[in-house]
Amino acid sequence: MKAETRSRLMRAGAGIAIAAILFAVLVILDPSGLYLWLKALHVIAAISWMAGMLYLPRLFVYHCDAEVASKRSETFKVMERRLLVAIINPAMIATWVLGLWLAYDAGFWRSGWFQAKIVLVLALSGVHGLFSRWVRDFAADRNTRPQRFYRMVNEIPTVLMIGIVILVVVKPF
Ligand code: HEM
Predict the structure, then answer these.
(1) Which one of 9, 38, 49, 136 has the fewest CB atoms closer than 10 angstroms to its CB?
(2) Distance of CA 68 from the midpoint of ligand 1 (Å)
(3) Ligand 1 pocket test: which of 42, 48, 162 has the largest number of ligand atoms within 8 Å of its C-beta?
(4) How much is the pTM?
């Protein structure tokens, strides 16, 4: 195994261990105000997830213009991979874990707004999966979709985000 891969795995392992210890301490101590702290962290994670989900399709749009194997195209590949691996993936995991924790704590399972929110968040997670596949396609120089396609796709996370935020803040049903 390469030294760089080993060091990345060790850092990821250390991060997971620290998160697990913090999680255990919070569950055991259950300090007052914990719910609001978790909600704040959940919103921070959701903002980070959305920032990546709104920016990545813009990179796809510009990437379509770059000639295969050009320096510009190789730069886009690095930007797309880093955005996905370093921001979008961990932010999505944190949003899900914290969101489910909040729902469990407050007992929102039967609320209509919560169920509708979950449907929209599942759709957002599906779009996330497609974005991951397209990052791999661009990395292997096998993208065949036109720029117009990515311009349209760019709007999907925005529409889902508007629905999700209205449901959780207004709780209309
Ligand atoms: C990944 C699955 C998700 C789950 C299970 C989930 C669940 C929850 C729960 C249970 C709350 C607490 C609601 C309350 O205390 O009234 C909450 C708050 C919130 N969530 Fe999510 N959420 C998820 C994803 C998202 C996403 C993707 C966004 C944004 C695009 C988002 C935005 C918010 C906001 C803004 C609040 C604060 C609402 C308020 O206090 O008025 N959530 N979420």
Answers:
(1) 9
(2) 40
(3) 42
(4) 0.88
